[in-house]
Backbone:
């Protein structure tokens, strides 16, 4: 046994000297390597970085739940090789922060990490779906560009141009739709299945009647309390909500039942998804098509 | 990015494997865990306490859930839950009076009760904890990609403590494991050793389950020692074989899962089962091994000519 202890110590000492090889921070053609844990942030990073960056996103499959994503060795390499890492934080992608920590070493610089939760001052337990908040999307745009400028100071003007183009052209329709829905439909009571819609619903000025504890329980896959369930059912059957919004990527039996009630009560239904759907869409294409569908449903419900 | 591929150039492969610090941490943690699990598991298999070991492993679930609820790191929950359950099982072990079989069945029933109670507590903690229990899957099946240097250091300290304690108490523990009556007659504190060993097992399981996950702890705790005890009846030699097999399985599984998209748990179990089956096969094929009778002081009572069986 004493021998075993020596083996352990010797191996550790041996291994301690390894792993110091400089990771490949630069992509092909000297481009900055950027990794985003989820593709909604990745899509924004691609459009801001233009030809100066090479962005890869880890969670891209719309069928995958980022909460319970199990990274592969390839994901860990992608993280370690990046110059900039964008993670959502707020307890949403703990695995991504763990990968970064596992590759960190005292005194050595890892990737420049942009943690959206830290940026916005949110903590685990708060609503993590802040890419559904238009104001926070704009804040993240600022932060990504700031990180790009820090990593490549020579290309400041390029990134400033990219940012202006993205904000005035890329996000133009997205911003306009939000302003329009807010102007026309503010105060309309709606119900929603999952906490992803809460930041957007608030920004649109809609009256969110669903108890937040219901939306959060559905989002986090925990049991819905009987009281919340009754409240939600009664709001739909009593026509107190004018539109029902549900996450089509997470239809639990509870949500399924509310959908049926809404259909029976002829309440217009709109859908949202957690990640880009289809995955080939850009962030704004995805958000705009959801907002247009929501606007149609609101129009149908109120006649405005 | 170019995908790393396995080549016949071993030096190149090793260089590729250790290029990233996360893999270096994985190998450090894997090595520590493999040695500790092989040594502690060797005694566990010898003492036929696999069920107790399994129960302690399952306790990492309530441990992690309770730690999440209390806002503590999950490792703290692992160690506390595994330690407490080891003590609970130790307390339920009655001194060997009456027929051995009845004492053993009473003991396994008590272990079963500890196990269900722990699982029930885990579910309670999980429903009380309002957030998502992050990484429930990696809790059950383990992950080698997220090990940071602080975790490696903790593992090293636990391993040194456990192996040090076993180095001091190894000989009397061996005697107490094989023949408690004789050990007691010679003045060995059998009861203290019983509880003490369970506590060491608890520590080892808590540490191992952080790498292999709660469900796969058994892979390293049972397969290498069982194979080693099949291969040779001499304690020192079989202990060394157990450590060697465990290291081989761990290193091989870590290396292959680095180059492949499939999870570590699959490779580690496959190799471990393979090693055990090969050991059994070797015993049946080699006439020398088949005819060999375990030397008297090492043979467990009533085991006849069979090598020490898997508990």
Residues:
């Amino acid at each position: 046994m004493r021998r075993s202890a020596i083996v352990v110590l010797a191996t550790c000492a041996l291994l301690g000297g390894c792993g110091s090889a400089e990771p490949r921070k630069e992509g092909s053609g000297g481009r900055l390597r950027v990794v985003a844990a989820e593709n909604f942030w990745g899509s924004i990073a691609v459009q801001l970085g233009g030809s100066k960056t090479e962005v890869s996103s880890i969670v891209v499959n719309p069928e995958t739940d980022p909460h319970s994503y199990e990274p592969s060795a390839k994901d860990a390499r992608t993280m370690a090789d990046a110059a900039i890492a964008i993670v959502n934080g707020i307890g949403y992608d703990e695995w991504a922060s763990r990968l970064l920590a596992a590759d960190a070493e005292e005194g050595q610089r890892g990737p420049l990490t942009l943690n959206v939760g830290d940026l916005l001052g949110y903590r685990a337990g708060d609503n993590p779906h802040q890419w559904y908040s238009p104001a926070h999307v704009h804040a993240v745009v600022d932060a990504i560009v700031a990180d790009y400028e820090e990593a490549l100071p020579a290309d400041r003007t390029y990134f400033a141009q990219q940012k202006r183009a993205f904000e005035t052209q890329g996000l133009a329709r997205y911003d306009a739709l939000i302003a329009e829905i807010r102007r026309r439909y503010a105060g309309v009571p709606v119900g929603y299945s999952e906490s992803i819609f809460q930041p957007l619903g608030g920004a649109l000025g809609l009256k969110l009647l669903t108890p937040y504890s219901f939306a959060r329980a559905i989002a986090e896959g925990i049991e819905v309390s009987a009281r919340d369930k009754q409240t939600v059912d009664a709001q739909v059957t009593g026509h107190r909500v004018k539109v029902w919004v549900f996450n089509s990527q997470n239809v639990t039996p509870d949500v399924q039942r509310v959908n049926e009630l809404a259909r029976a009560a002829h309440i217009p239904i709109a859908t949202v998804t957690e990640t880009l759907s289809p995955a080939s869409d850009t962030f704004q294409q995805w958000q705009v098509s959801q907002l247009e569908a929501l606007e149609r449903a609101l129009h149908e419900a109120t006649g405005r | 990015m170019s995908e790393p591929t396995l080549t016949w150039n071993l030096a190149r492969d090793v260089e590729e494997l250790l290029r990233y610090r996360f893999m270096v941490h994985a190998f450090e943690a894997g090595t520590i865990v493999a040695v500790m699990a092989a040594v502690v598991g060797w005694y566990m298999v010898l003492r036929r306490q696999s069920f107790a070991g399994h129960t302690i492993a399952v306790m990492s679930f309530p441990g992690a859930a309770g730690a999440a609820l209390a806002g503590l790191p999950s490792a703290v929950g692992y160690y506390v839950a595994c330690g407490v359950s080891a003590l609970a099982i130790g307390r339920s072990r009655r001194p060997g009076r009456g027929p051995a079989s009845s004492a053993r069945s009473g003991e396994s029933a008590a272990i079963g009760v500890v196990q269900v109670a722990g699982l029930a507590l885990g579910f309670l903690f999980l429903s009380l904890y309002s957030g998502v229990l992050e990484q429930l899957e990696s809790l059950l099946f383990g992950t080698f990609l997220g090990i940071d240097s602080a975790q490696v250091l903790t593992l090293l300290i636990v391993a040194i403590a456990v192996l040090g304690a076993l180095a001091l108490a190894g000989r009397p523990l061996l005697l107490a494991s094989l023949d408690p009556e004789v050990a007691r007659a010679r003045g060995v504190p059998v009861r203290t050793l019983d509880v003490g060993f369970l506590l060491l097992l608890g520590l080892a399981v808590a540490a191992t389950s952080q790498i292999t996950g709660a469900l796969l702890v058994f892979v390293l705790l049972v397969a290498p020692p069982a194979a080693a005890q099949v291969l040779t009846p001499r304690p020192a030699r079989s202990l060394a074989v157990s450590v060697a097999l465990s290291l081989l399985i761990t290193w091989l599984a870590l290396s292959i899962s680095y180059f492949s998209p499939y999870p570590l748990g699959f490779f580690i179990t496959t190799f471990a089962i393979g090693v055990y089956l090969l050991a059994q096969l070797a015993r049946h094929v080699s006439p020398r091994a088949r005819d060999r009778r375990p030397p008297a002081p090492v043979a467990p009572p009533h085991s006849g000519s069979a090598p020490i069986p898997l508990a």
